[in-house]
Design brief:
Elements: H1 2-23, E1 36-42, H2 54-61, E2 63-69, H3 81-89, H4 97-110, H5 112-124, E3 135-136, E4 139-140, H6 158-180, H7 185-204, H8 223-230, H9 234-245, E5 261-264, E6 269-271, H10 272-280, E7 288-289, E8 296-297, E9 302-304, H11 305-312, H12 341-356
Parallel strand pairs: 1-2
Antiparallel strand pairs: 3-4, 5-6, 5-9, 7-8
Helix pairs in contact: 1-2, 2-3, 4-5, 6-7, 8-11, 9-11
């Protein structure tokens, strides 16, 4: 559609302007964009699968005679992931958003069997797939020893079982609530993935299901974080708190479900680790651009659910699952370490491997 293509062009213009601003007058986006490269190779190319991020727009703008995308997981969520690769590769006509939608996405939606056949033909022209079974002149590309796989089952303790069931019940309620609100398919998809993430975390260790004591850098909420959150208007603060507690979109930085979410004042939810890494790289100006909308942000514009809740005097959650333990115990940085059955079992297995290899200390 024309409006979708217009959005794409506007996003590219914003990214270009932001890059030029960050690099200084006349820099044209920086030194990387002033060089005409012989070959540009994107390793872990799925990092640019989200066309809304600045990383994607920056990769598209690189000038090169040859372009390669390397990835073990080229499609992680849907066929939409391919568009950003085609845009980087300048694979016409599919690098045009309208053409990609019309020639590939719409065809798959109308008739999946025929649509995927078309996609297979489109990919055959540019895709080189290699597996462990691939050979050159009759010889394996890589000679690897046989894989040894053992399935180890570990039962929960009684306390862990109670906690897991509580997380599961909370997740089912959240999924049902999202379905009742009739949100977009992408929001419901992310909601489902977020629920699965919480369940996986609960299997590993209850503390991974973050609670009140967790902030952007871990530990307890600081007075400065609460003060920054209090500057946010009450209505917006409530909306940001809801987003931080239950993300509706993927992290703009990594494109995955936000893990231990934090939210920006422009209402985009990031993984805590993704955002912390971005904040640590800030210069003296203390400014950076949101990866989703190019909004100028400072470190005081990023909020954890804990800080937002403390600023509004709102309890973070009422269930034990929100506090990281079946008994609702605090899980801040000063809490005494408590292991889990899975962690203990993993340590036993690693110790056995060390001893088997004759590397015992």
């Amino acid at each position: 559609k024309d409006d979708e293509w217009g959005w794409e062009e506007r996003q590219a213009a914003k990214a270009s302007a932001a890059a030029r601003k960050a690099s200084g007058p006349g820099a044209g986006g920086g030194l990387l964009f002033q060089i005409h490269w012989h070959r540009v190779v994107l390793d872990e190319a799925q990092s640019i699968k989200n066309p809304r991020t600045l990383a994607s727009h920056a990769a598209w703008r690189l000038a090169a005679a040859h372009r390669w995308c390397l990835s073990g997981t080229p499609i992680q969520n849907s066929v939409d992931d391919l568009y950003s690769y085609f845009k980087f590769l300048r694979y016409k006509p599919y690098c045009d958003h309208h053409s990609f939608k019309t020639l590939i996405k719409d065809r798959i939606a109308m008739d999946p069997e025929k649509g995927y056949q078309v996609l297979k033909v489109v990919l055959q022209a540019i895709l080189l797939r290699r597996t462990k079974q691939s050979t050159i002149n009759g010889e394996p590309i890589v000679k690897l020893p046989p894989r040894e796989q053992n399935l180890v089952r570990q039962d929960f303790t009684e306390q862990e079982s109670v906690f897991y069931k509580q997380v599961q019940a909370d997740s089912m309620k959240a999924i049902q609530a999202a379905a009742d609100q009739q949100g977009s398919s992408s929001q419901q998809y992310v909601n489902m993935l977020y629920s699965l993430l919480k369940l996986r975390q609960a299997c590993n260790h209850p503390w991974l299901v973050r609670g009140v004591g967790r902030t952007l850098y871990g530990g307890k909420v600081t007075a400065a974080e609460v003060a920054a959150a209090k500057k946010v208007p009450a209505e917006l603060r409530a909306q940001l708190l809801q987003l931080a507690q239950r993300p509706q979109e993927q992290c703009p930085a990594c494109g995955d479900v936000p893990e231990d979410p934090v939210v920006s004042k422009c209402a985009h939810v990031y993984c805590r680790q993704c955002m912390a890494g971005q904040l640590e790289g800030l210069g003296h100006e203390d400014e950076f651009l949101c990866s989703a909308c190019s909004h100028v942000l400072r470190h005081t514009d990023i909020h954890s659910a804990a800080a937002l809740a403390a600023a509004g005097g709102t309890p973070l959650a009422s269930s034990p699952a929100a506090n990281g333990g079946a008994d609702g115990a605090a899980t801040g940085a000063d809490a005494a370490w408590v292991s889990s059955s899975k962690v203990d079992r993993l340590l036993q297995l690693l110790t056995a491997v060390r001893e088997r290899n004759g590397a015992g200390a």
